[in-house]
Amino acid sequence: MRIQNYYGTEGNGKILKEVFHMTDSGSNILNGSYTSYFVNGKVKASGHYRNNRAIGPWKYYFENGVIKMIGVFNDSTSLSEWKYYFENGNLSMKGSILNGRRTADWQFYYEQGGVKSKGNFEQGKRNGTWKYFYEDGTQKAEANYKDDKGLYKEYYRSGQVKSQGRNINGKSDSLWMYFYENKKVKAIGHYQNGLKEGNWKYYHDNGNISSEGSYTHGVSNGKWLYYHENGQLSSEGNEKDGIKDGYWKLYHKSGIFKGESTFKLGEGPYKEYYESGKLKMTGQIKDNKNQGKWLYYYENGKLEGECLFINGVGEFKGYYENGKLRMTGTIKDGVNVGVWKLYKENGELAGYYNTIYDNGVPTYEPIESDKTETRNNPFHQIPAFLFKSKKVKYFQPRINEFRGIVIATNPIATVLGSLPFSVEYYYQERLGYELFFNFLRDPFFTSDANIELNTLYKRGYSVRFRQKFYQQDESFGMLYFGHELGFTALNHFANVIDPNPQIGRSSISADENKFEYAIFIGDRIMRYAGDPGITLDVYLGLGIGYRSYREKFRNNDTYKEIFDDVSKSSLSVPLRFGVNIGYVF
């Protein structure tokens, strides 16, 4: 039984949608030839059905009539060859299908011709060695898969490794590394289901770090740091959902404060300064592009130029210090583009020029005639808003740095016979001055009267003053090194039966005092290094000091035995270890 379906009516005629055959009018079982059509009348697909199942050769077409794919539907035990095409008619991919899944050898092609990749499938999953190629036929990458999971390695045309990492079901996963052609690391981080996740680090081609920060589901989030090629910090701040958010600071290559901006949803005002601290430029940033009117200044405070930006593109006017027009031209994303006009101080047009950059500094090459005169003109660089870096100098205050008070303790330490408490004055990623008090009591929760006879117990305190030198905040926290001076007053007690029966039970004691110096390393973990919040401090150190020991009981061998385990050496070698949780105000 032959059936025809239509899209509807257009003009005076019907537009045929499909033609097919059924066993009878009541069964709804497709049996026989089948053809479907586009609205323009061209064939969309053609083939045969047997008992409602596609069987034999089938063809599918693009709307322009070009073949889209062609192949054979077989039973579940037989291979069928399928070919897929681009709309220009060139082969897109080809291979075998078994029971609806790709199997055996497959090849994929570029739209303009040439093999793009080739390898083997088993039950729809890549297995074995796969090779990938550039359009000129040079090998681009290779991978070794098992059940569509394997190590993928990509190459430059020179043969040097470009990137490598795990590929799962066609998506990047786990740790990936990227390289420059000089073999130095370009980037390193993790993917999860094809999206960047967690902490990533990027590097300049000289090996110095370029930037570092974290991703969540493929977009940047949290604290990000950017660096100049010389290793100095270039800029730092928070990002949220891929855009800058909150307060950002920028630094010159020398490490001196350069600029600042406070962003809200990627938008905010920006100010940049000379190394002398004088204002250099001011304007508005939106989505990392200059927006609105920007003003540029000489170091003496006079106006150097102005530019009205729309999405990072603007027409710049530069002035001599006497206020006369000096140059005009277009700035795009912080770079001079197109033809620039330069003027003499008397107002006469000097000529038309192209901008040539040398290590980021622009020079102006005349489009016609005398180039020598142009090279000698001391035109200033039109500044670009670029986030890049500086190294921490422990005793050099920073502009707008966060300073806070950290109060910390660790009640769990009572199981070891102490209760620490500390107050620290914290300078953001730079310095910390901490007063540390430790209440010593072992056993901690047992009263003196309930201690067993002839058993030592301790009561006392220690006070320490610490100085900490913080490193820059990383994903694992702020590492620091430090030193301290400390004093400990500790009393050792024991409950005994007094020889005088009229006295009965009494206590004997020995005093221990220590003066110590120690060095230590640690890690302070905070959500953000420049904001209030909960913080965790872990440290480990070693010291040296002087101990005084004095027994406060009459000479008695039995009593002395009780105190045998107490160190009586005048040399003290303290081990420092602790984990404190606190809050930064």
Automatic annotation (TrEMBL):
Stated name of the protein: Membrane-binding protein
UniProt cross-references to SUPFAM superfamilies, sorted A to Z: Histone H3 K4-specific methyltransferase SET7/9 N-terminal domain
Species annotation: Splendidivirga corallicola
Stored InterPro entries: MORN_2
Highest taxon listed in the record's lineage: Bacteria
